[in-house]
Structures are given as C-alpha cells and as structure tokens.
C-alpha cells in the first residue's frame, strides 16, 4: 500500500485542503474507524453483559472481541485490559487505586521523568506527601540507561515516547527494576512496537484517539497479579458481586474496574484502528516516519537561530523547536493561516519547558502515516516565511 492510497482512506483530507502535522495531539481517523461507529449503532446496539436476548449477546461479543484484539496487539491477556475514556482517566484511576490498595502509601517514593506529560505527573503529585524525583535527559534528550538501572524507588512512571522530543524510553533498563512501573504509551502505540511482557511494564495507559481510533476510549493495562490486588477506582452498576445495605462486594477480575455502561461503540472502533495499523504494518509506519523526519530535520538544522528539541538516537516522528526571537505561537499561527496544522505551547510539559528547555513554548511538528514529502516541504517553507515576517 502506498501513502497516496493510505491517505485516501482518511475522509478529512478529501473534505478540506490541509496539511496535518499534529498527530501527537490526535491522529486523523480512517473511514474504517469512522464507519464502524455507525455500524455498531445500526447493527449491534444494546447494553453489554446483562441482556439475555441475541442482540445483547452480539453487543457483548463485539465488546469482548475488541478487548481481545487490544490485548493481542500489546501482548497482554484480555483479563489485563480495562477500557477507560483515555490515558488521563486511566492514570487518575490507577493512582487512586494503588493508594487504596496499600501497594503505595502517601510516603512512597515516586519517580517521574523530565519528559512526562501533565497527565502522568498530576495524579502522582496528588497522592504523595514526599517530593517527587525527576529523571533527566541528556543533551540529545535521551535517558541514561545506567542511571535508570540504579534508581531505587517505589514507583517509576515514564512516557514510553515523549510527546515533545519523540524520545523512546529505554525499557531494557527495567529488567531488574524492583518498583512499580507505569508506562504512558499514548505516543508510542501506532508508532513503535509495544510489547508489555518484553518491556517489563506493570501498568500501561493509552488513548484510542492518538492511534487512529476515536476519542473517548482508552485502555489501562495492568499485570493480572497486580490488578487482583487493586480495588475499583469507580463504583456503581456492572462491577459488583453483591450489594448489601451498608457495603458491597466487587466482582472479581477486570469487571470490577468498569463501573457503568461502557463505551462499546468506541471500543469496537478502536479494534478497527488496530486493524488499520496492522494492515499498514508497524515496520512501514516506522520507516515512513523516519523518512519524513530525515527531510524535515536536515532542513531545520541548516536554519539559523533554531533550537531543536528532538532525540536523534532513538525516537519517533515528533519534533519540537523554537526560534531565538520569533515566538512559537507566531510561527504556528502563520502556518495555521496557510493551511498547515502544527502545535505551539508547552504541550502539557511545563516541567520540561521550564526546567530543561528554559522557554515557555515550542513549536511541535508530529507525523502520521498520511503525511508525505510535500507536507514537509510546505511546512518548512512556511516556517522560513514566518520567521522572515516576524524577525
Ligand atoms: N500523555 C501524553 C504523552 C499525551 O500526549 C497525552 C495527550 N496529549 C496524554 C498523556 C493524555 O491523553 P488523553 O488526553 O487522551 O487522556
């Protein structure tokens, strides 16, 4: 499948003439994903798990098949996959549940990284009384393997891929790791191979909308042994074994984490997003991102007064940069006005921008499988024009 054919599967590009270089914020959706939402409501709609009629059985089957698909995709078991609304809900729920379980206490040592997104910082800040440690990155925005190996902490939460520099976290460093590990895989799934067993990850979160799937659906993965020890983070219908006047007994298994009516249509659409990624092939995605990134970086590096925030060693197609005198928002606005969508700001990484990059905002360009060489060249030309205009 060539990129032209792949791009044709994304109706948004047939409906408007834009260059979309903001896939780290959310990817565009192929028609197979969009159509599957209508398909669900037209053919399968019924509440799951409780109905005794064929339509309810079908809806439950669709939902559970989607769980199986995501499990297989990240090399987990289906009973380790909890559907949530997105990574943010997953991290809030997980942190609450870890405290309730006693696996963590208010005095546990939490270690995060300079590259973490606010969604993987604030939930941990909320639960601890102790100062959080932050792992730094070197001048190439790469983590030091030996430093990570030597860390002693109760919980290490990290971005599997940074949403600013594209840095891929060295999960090899976790082989001997003793504490709890939490991977924020929102920027990783659909860009690199994710294998929770190989990567030695205890918990992982992802958002469907960043992997060609719909908004409003995400996943919390947890090792079965650990999930068994965690209490539910939401309570209500669908998650209990028994309810008494003063108390309740939760269901066993992952059902206890999915209170209320789940987002079945979007879980189904997420399974279609996985089909899409698998049809294109992760190797092809990686190769294509590297190709685009190569063209973009070569030109950006030749420009004066630009600082590039990107890991050249081991990274995906997410590149941020700033100009010495032209504000990031001016560059992004100029690009936007001329049909090129990029992001400017702190990208929910104020710690990184304030303490490491020492700037309030950067411009971020992030690639998806639908981008081509023309997109990159148009973006570069407009960056140059905006700098000329505002300098
Ligand atoms: N982590 C990272 C690295 C992200 O880029 C994002 C989304 N910007 C999140 C977490 C939160 O994801 P969501 O908004 O889908 O909950």
From TrEMBL:
Substrates-to-products reaction catalysed: (sulfur carrier)-H + L-cysteine = (sulfur carrier)-SH + L-alanine
Cofactor requirement: pyridoxal 5'-phosphate
List the InterPro entries.
Aminotrans_V_dom (IPR000192), Aminotrans_V_PyrdxlP_BS (IPR020578), Cys_dSase_SufS (IPR010970), PyrdxlP-dep_Trfase (IPR015424), PyrdxlP-dep_Trfase_major (IPR015421), PyrdxlP-dep_Trfase_small (IPR015422)
Keywords of the record, alphabetical order, are: Aminotransferase, Pyridoxal phosphate, Transferase
* Start and end residues of each Aminotransferase class V domain: 19-378
GO BP terms in the entry: cysteine metabolic process
Mind telling me which Pfam families this protein's record contains? Aminotran_5
Question: EC number(s) in its UniProt entry?
Answer: 2.8.1.7
Q: Which domain of life is it from?
A: Bacteria
For this protein, the record's CDD domains field holds: SufS_like
- Hey, which family's this protein in? Belongs to the class-V pyridoxal-phosphate-dependent aminotransferase family. Csd subfamily.
Q: Kindly provide the name given to this protein in its UniProt entry.
A: cysteine desulfurase
Q: Which organism is it from?
A: Candidatus Dojkabacteria bacterium
